[in-house]
């Protein structure tokens, strides 16, 4: 097993491999992370023989399930407040970084051609901008031939971390959105069609000419035969193409040591090349679980994903966490979880 000699001796000792054991664990939550989670689960089982089951049911349901101890870990794209974590007796840490992108179904518009500002996106979702040839859209897309097609807004109907990051971004760039709708995993949408999960939104946008929705970037790339993603103006005034490089540019501004329990949101980050709707998936787990063995298996899977799953993340245009942050997370585990969990997690097959 890989060791980090920069860590304190006590943590290094806990991470030394002990006799292997067959392990299984269950998780639920974020659909945002589902594409890379599936890749990690397959690769981890091939390497260790250990089984991980993950339900992509949305961040809100995932958090509900971990609160009920119905799963061993929850995954959310909206970090929980440290005060809530204290009350729940839980820990929270990031696992991967990606992006939320606007997607459209407009005949003749190719991926990366359509430009959006935050104000225009808010205007569309507030119902103030109703057709694709509205002057507000034409002004920032002078080279595109935009139709008079009515805009059909598509949003999530389930409690969603993707919705949280989308609405959080709109709240930062549009005072009207902030005052009338606000942010959250679920909001009172002014109108539009609702889909369940990233897949549900992607399917609706694909089926409805003139539709607009928001997706995790990997889902958008899977549907380029039917829909196109747009570029969004960032806080520096630049229209930025979503990709791993622009997500990384946003992530580079983050100081993960400044906030308890890694409570940090990356939307509208500073930086010339930063993509403005960059998001993080967090894992939430109890400090004192019903089954220390299953929690140990979950920690081992996450550790493997952080240390050995970078290729799978990069292939899908997610941003793996930097090594310094991985070490910080491992120290956080040591400080927050009992030695029984940490010792057991070091004994799984590798």
UniProtKB/TrEMBL annotation:
Signal peptide (residue range): 1-22
Keyword check for Membrane: no
Segments crossing the lipid bilayer: none
Keywords in alphabetical order: Phosphate transport, Signal, Transport
Superkingdom of this protein's organism: Bacteria
Domain PBP: 24-306
Function: Part of the ABC transporter complex PstSACB involved in phosphate import.
Assembly, per entry: The complex is composed of two ATP-binding proteins (PstB), two transmembrane proteins (PstC and PstA) and a solute-binding protein (PstS).
Entry's family note: Belongs to the PstS family.
Protein name: Phosphate-binding protein PstS
Protein's gene: pstS
